[in-house]
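Collaborator request, handled under Task 6.
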Amino acid sequence: MKTNRIIIIFVCVVLAFFTLGATDVIHMANAVTGEGNAEGRMIGVFVTTQPLDLFDIEGYFNDNAEKILSDGEIGESIIEKYQDRLYATLVEKSYTNEETGETKVIQEYVFEGVEGISYFSALYTDDVSTYRGSSGDDAISDGKVAISSTDEGESVSLEGTIYASTTGGPNAFYYNPVYQTAQGEVYVMTGQGMSYGGEITDGMSGYYELKQETSTTSDNESETISSYVKIGVSFMAAPKSVKLIQLDGESNVLSREEYAPGKLPDSLTVEPNTEYIVVETSSGGTGFSETIVRELYQPGDESLFAFYCRDDGILIKQHCSIGWKD
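Structure tokens returned to the collaborator:
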């Protein structure tokens, strides 16, 4: 016996108004339930800032015109028949370790020709073994991937946050579930969308959760395969400058360096007697006043970070390693 459940949960912080189009409600369309998804296991999400138009609206209307015009009920299993799939391409990418100079070639699934933020954990097969690899865009910050495999089943969990600029950044996000078939094919289907209306200010946020659970029973033994995705969206002002300030135990400034956002060094040279480091980020806020945010780092912290804004209005965390002196 086999049971399959897909659950969509969407939660928003009360600080914001949420709209789609000209309405003042969250529009939940093309729900990803039904037999159409039973052929693949959900492995993550593909986030876009425009609707991923994979629904055959013309075929749907032509085949169901009578029911549509008479306001008749059309079951989800019928709707799923018109939900198309966008398949990913398996490509090879080379990465070079800057410290060792060693180049490594890895496999990765990409949705070619479509702009979006990938975040999924797919199965890959090479000449040696089959393994699970996680793919994530730089736009996914604070990422957490957890994979568990036991006799009772397997679970995959992915969490992360997308930071967007309060000015010039996207205010709509569409969460399109990604699946993988038993044959290894990876595809995405149209998911849910939401937008943030009104004035976009620092601290506005929300999150989206998607769960899939499949249970099988054979010879009185049950196995559960589950997948969980949680993507948060948080708005903040785009940084204008970043300062790295080193201080001793008496709060005397030993070093003060200013950088343009995105131009942090890969590693920080720590001055002798430095007891802590302050990362000071200045931004313009949503008005004309300057906003300053300070983060404190102490011995034991291996790296620090600061944000910079991409051309598309998404904020990226840039990390810088810290080499403390004994």
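The cover message to the collaborator said: "The two ends are 62 Å apart (CA to CA). The helical segments are 57-69, 76-80. Please let us know whether this matches your experimental observations."
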